[in-house]
Design brief:
The complex is a heterodimer.
Chain A: E1 12-13, E2 25-29, H1 35-39, H2 46-53, H3 58-66, H4 72-78, H5 82-86, H6 98-112, E3 125-129, H7 133-145, E4 148-152, H8 161-164, H9 173-185, E5 189-191, H10 199-204, E6 210-213, E7 219-220, E8 233-235, H11 236-244, E9 254-258, H12 262-273, E10 278-282, H13 294-302, E11 306-308, E12 311-316, E13 320-328, E14 334-344, E15 347-350, E16 354-355, E17 387-389, H14 400-418, H15 455-459, H16 471-480, H17 492-496, E18 502-504, E19 511-513, H18 523-527, E20 533-537
Parallel strand pairs in A: 3-4, 3-6, 4-5, 6-17, 8-15, 9-10, 9-15, 10-11
Antiparallel strand pairs in A: 2-20, 7-16, 12-13, 13-14, 18-19
Helix pairs in contact in A: 2-3, 3-6, 4-6, 6-16, 7-14, 11-12
Chain B: H1 49-64, E1 69-73, H2 77-82, E2 87-88, E3 94-96, H3 102-115, E4 122-128, H4 129-134, H5 137-145, E5 151-156, H6 197-203, E6 208-213, H7 217-228, E7 234-239, H8 243-246, H9 253-263, E8 269-272, E9 275-279, H10 288-292, H11 308-325
Parallel strand pairs in B: 1-3, 1-4, 4-5, 5-7, 6-7
Antiparallel strand pairs in B: 6-8, 8-9
Helix pairs in contact in B: 1-7, 3-5
The chains are: A alpha/beta, B alpha/beta.
Chain lengths: 540, 332
Amino acid sequence: MEKPFAITLDVGSSLANKTGSWRTTRPVYVDRLPPCNNQCPAGENVQAWLYHAEEGRYEEAWRKIMEENPFPAVMGRVCYHTCETACNRGTLDEAVGINGVERFLGDQAIKYDWKVAPGAPTGKHVLVVGAGPAGLACAYHLVRFGHAVTVVEAAPKAGGMLRYGIPKYRMPREKLNAEIQRIVDMGVVIRLNTRIEDLAAELAAGAFDATFVAAGAPRGRLVDIPVAGPLPVLDAVRILRQLELDEPVALRGRVVIYGGGNTAFDVARSAVRLGAIEALVVYRRTREKMPAHRSEIKEALEEGVTLRCLSTITAVGSSSITVEKMELDARGFPQPTGELETLQANSLVLALGQDTEIAFLGRLPGLEAPKGLVAVDRTMATGSPGTFAGGDMVPADRNATVAIGHGKKAARAIDAHLRGETLGRQSKHEIATADKMNTWYYADAPRAIRPILEAVRRTSGFAEVVGDYDEGTALYEARRCMSCGNCFECDNCYGVCPDNAVIKLGPGKRFQFNYDYCKGCGVCIAECPCGAITKVAETI
Amino acid sequence: METQIVKFYQTGSFAVGNRLLDESQRSVQATMQRRNSLNSGHRACQGCGEALGARYALDAAMQATNNQLIATNATGCLEVFSTPYPETSWQIPWIHSLFGNAAAVATGVAAAMRVKGRHEVRVIAQGGDGGTTDIGFGCLSGMFERNDDVLYICYDNEGYMNTGVQRSSATPPAARTATTPPLGPEPGNVFGQGKFVPAIAMAHNIPYVATASVAYLRDLEAKVHKAMGIRGARYLHVFVPCPLGWGAASDDTIRLARLVVETGLFPLFEAEHGEIIGRYHIRRRVQVEEYLRLQRRYAHLFGHKPAVDTIARIQAMADRNIRKYGLLGEEA
C-alpha cells in the first residue's frame, strides 16, 4: 500500500516493546498465614471460612470449619477464642467477632441438618478411649479417612468435660448432643458406661490397629487444710458432674470456692443459680493472675459472685473457714502475712486443678507418663507404638479447643501410621502481620455486640447467658474480616497497575502477573489491602 | 423486606473492585472487559501516575460513550511514552499535533464530527500540566469561552518531567526542579507564584469542572461519566504523581496521590457553571510533613536543620484549602 509522505513504516503496537526487561524486582502472589489461623489451637482456617460466610454461603463456610473441627456450635460457645486476641483488625478498630460467627454457622448446620460424609472404608479399626472433645474429634477425623472407630466411654453419656465440666448456661446440651450425634451418624461406635481397666490387655485381644487415648483429667486435686469442724469440703469436678446428672448438690447458704480457674467460676455461678446466699471465690494470687477467662470472671461478678484474692484458706471450722491474707513479695509471688480472718461458710468447694487417672495404661510397653501426664511427640504418639494420646492427659493447655486440635493431629498421625508412614512436618506460611497490609481500603466498622442475658434473669436459671448473632449481624461480622495475607479478589492490583500487567482470571481464579510488561514498580504490592503480594529480586 | 445500604468491610469499601457487588455496580477498572485504552508496552517510568490516570479516565470515557471517542493529545510525557514511531499504545482513535494546541485541535475534531452529523462521537483533549497550564493555556481558555463540546483532561504531575524536570506554573512552592534548585534564601520553587487552573476554568462558567486523583478511582470514574453526559466545554484536572520528577519511590504513587488529598493540599471537588456542587471530605487527615517526606524534591526541608517555617507555610496552604473548600465532613 502507498504510504503517506515521509512515512516508511507500518503502524505497530507497543506490545512489541516488552517492558518487563526493565524489572529488577518482581511481584509474586503469596498466601500468608492469617494470625487467627496461626493462633487457633484446633488449626481452623478462620480466614477461609469467613471468606465464604461473608458471601452468605454459610454451608460452605461451615464445611470449611468441619475440615478441621467437628464442633462449631460447641466452639462458638466454650472456645476462649484467642483468635480474636490475635486478629489484626484489633489494631484498626476492634477484632472480628469470630466466635460469634462460628456459633451462628454451627447453629445453622444443626437447624438445617447438614452432614459430613465418611471416607471410603479402609478396613482398619481404631480404638479411642474417652468420648471427650479430643476423643470425639479424633474419631470424627478417622472416620473421614475411612477407618472404623470404636470409642469407649466410662460415663453414661458422651461429651467428656464439655458435658460433665461445663454448666448448661454456657453449653446448652441440645447443641452438644446434636454435634455428637452427627459424628455417631457417620458410623462412629460409642460404647458408653464402659471403663477400660487395662488397655494392654484390651489391645492384646488384637481387634484394633491403633489406639487414641484421651481419658482426660477427671480427678479434682486436693489440698491439706486442717479440719476442725464438720463443714462439708467438696470437689468442684464432682459437683459439676452431679449437676449434669441432676443429683442433689450441697451448694446452699454461703458457698466458698477455693481456686481461680474456670472450674471455680463454673461452680460459683452454678451456686448462684441454685439459690446460694453467697458465692465467694478465694484465690491465692491477684485477680490479674487468675487463670479463668476474663469474660468468665466478668459475667460471674455481674451475677453476684464475690472475689477474695491474695488469700489462702488455712483452716476449716464447723460453719466457718479461716483465711490468711497474702502479700506479693519483691518478685511478685504471694507470701503469707500471718493476718487471719474468719469467714462464715456453709460449704467449701475445692477447685484447685485436676489430675489424670492413668493406672489403666500401666502395662503398655514403652509408654512414659512423668508426673501423671502422658508423654507424646509432635504427632501425639506415645512411646508405645500404635498408641497415641491427647487432651487433658498430655502436657498442654487444658481446654476444649486444644483437645480438639490434639484429636485432629492424632487422627492424621494415626492415618499415616496405618498406611505405614510417619506424618510429615507441614511448613507454615509466613504470618500476615499488620505491617504487611494496607488498611486504608477497609472502612471503619466497630464490632457487633453479642446480646447478653440480663443478670437477674441469669441467676434464676440455667438458660444460656451469651446470645446468638442473628443472620444480619453474623454477615456483618464476617464482612469485617480483612482476609489477612490471602487474596480476596478486591481487584486492587488489577486496577492500580500502570502497565496493565495484571491479568484478571475471573471470579474465584484470582490474578496472574504478565511479566512481559510488568516493570516491577511495586504499586500493586503497596496497595494490596491484605498483603498477598511479595517482592522478589530478579536474577539479572 | 426493607432495603438498606450494605457496607463491605472485607471486600474493601475503598478498593478498586468488590466481589460482592453486582457487576453493573463495579468500577470500570475492575471489569475484565475494560478497554485498556492505553495498552502495555508504553515507555512510561515505573510507577507512572500519568499512565495510570490516562487509562482510568479514558477507559471510563470509552464506556460512557459506547466506544465512540476521539482523543487529541498535547506534547508531553503522555504523548512521548505512548507513541514512539511507529508504535502506539493507544487502543482508541488518537491524534497529536503540537504542544500548545490540543484544545484547539479537539475543537476542530468536534466541529468536524458535527458537520458530518456524527453526534454520538465525543471528543477528549488531554495533556500534562505544562501543555495545559502554560503552553496550551490560550487555546484552552478559547475552547472554554466558546463552550466547545470537548472534555479537556489535564494530568497534573507538577512540572515538565519529560524534558528533565523543569518548573511549570503547576509546580508547588518549595519543590526542587531543574530550574528551581534548592539554593539560596528560599530554596526550591518560590511561594506566591503559579496558578490553579480548575479555579480559572470555573471562572469561564463552563458546564462542568472537576478535580480528581489517581488514588480515588471510583470518584475519578464517576466524574468522567458525569462529564461525558454533558455537552459543552468541560474540564477535569487529575493529580498524577511522578516518581522520577519528585524523587519518590515507584511504589508510592498511589500513596502520594492519597496523601495529597488527605492533607488538604489538593482538594477534590466538582463544579457546575462556576459553582462548587460537591467535594470529597477528608477521611483520615494527615499533616503535610507525611506527604512531603516521601519526596526528594522536598529533601532540603528535612536536613540537619529542618525548614520548620517552610513546612508551616505549606501546612497553612493545606489548612486554607480545607477551610476554603470545606474539606472536613461533619464527623472529622
